[in-house]
From TrEMBL:
Residues 36-211 form the Ribosomal RNA adenine methylase transferase N-terminal domain. It comes from Tissierella creatinophila DSM 6911. This is Ribosomal RNA small subunit methyltransferase A. It catalyses: adenosine(1518)/adenosine(1519) in 16S rRNA + 4 S-adenosyl-L-methionine = N(6)-dimethyladenosine(1518)/N(6)-dimethyladenosine(1519) in 16S rRNA + 4 S-adenosyl-L-homocysteine + 4 H(+). Belongs to the class I-like SAM-binding methyltransferase superfamily. rRNA adenine N(6)-methyltransferase family. RsmA subfamily. It is an enzyme of class 2 (transferase). GO terms for molecular function: 16S rRNA (adenine(1518)-N(6)/adenine(1519)-N(6))-dimethyltransferase activity; RNA binding. Keywords: Cytoplasm, Methyltransferase, RNA-binding, rRNA processing, S-adenosyl-L-methionine, Transferase. NCBIfam families: ksgA (TIGR00755). InterPro entries: KsgA/Erm, rRNA_Ade_diMease-like_C, rRNA_Ade_Mease_Trfase_CS, rRNA_Ade_methylase_Trfase_N, rRNA_adenine_dimethylase, SAM-dependent_MTases_sf.
Amino acid sequence: MENRLYSAKYLKSIIESHGFKFSKSLGQNFLIDGNIVKKIVRDAGITKDDYVLEVGPGVGTLTEELALNAKGVVAVEIDKSLLPILDITLKPYKNIEIVHGDILDIDIKSLIEEKMEGGPVKVVANLPYYVTTPIIARFLEEDLNVESLTIMVQKEVAQRMVSLEGSKVYGSLSVFVNFYSNPEILLTVPKSVFMPSPKIDSAVIKLNMKKDLPEVDKEQFFKVVKASFSKRRKTILNALSSYGFNLEKDDFKIALETAGIDPKSRAEELSLEEFVKISKILPPLDI
Ligand code: SAM
């Protein structure tokens, strides 16, 4: 079957015939490069055994390529005006289901249970940039049967997600993503492969979900991480002790020293494992 949704000419004709207007506020930048579309699906490792959950199918460009390679695709689209277009563009494919809804509100667990045989599921998406982090957070934090996320995000966000201690862009997002997954940047993508073209470059990143998470109380751990990065210029001791927790500065000092961490070091120098150590040594934190 001819795969043509990524042709800019076809995209133009279909959106014009439906009077569709791109919504900036919904992050609508559609892919118009067949090589990139194919590469995303290939690098996501999609096979005929896989169910894929796509966020934001747009006019169905990536969805089509996914359907050609996967067992089944469920795509969640928020924009009602795209539904009649998707009806036409994806008509030939029997293994696609479009769900109208907001990925931030929808019950993803039930979706996986009811429409994807309970998973495991691979998430693939060219994400709307205005909600990248909350969407990723949902998939990482909720106990979902998700194996990996292969997602297009802003290049700068991708770099933050893969960075390790010592890097200039290392921060709480890096620790958060690395807590739940092993991230890798698959490719960087120029602005020219989208319509309309965004202002910034993008990257495709794959988050391979960890089967075994670090053994630590998650709530305590993320409190420590958040407080540690809240004032990047301060030492770890000052950042933690000025955050307003129910502990004295000396308590933090002793805990850091017990963990083998110099109280004068800064959050961006500490590894995920070191944050785990501190969180375990400190008594339960409260504000
Ligand atoms: N997948 C298409 C492509 O690659 O050409 C479109 C990608 S476009 C960057 C993002 C898509 O996500 C748009 O179709 C937009 O309407 C949709 N979207 C935006 N916010 C959403 C949300 N909260 N839930 C579901 N879809 C959303």
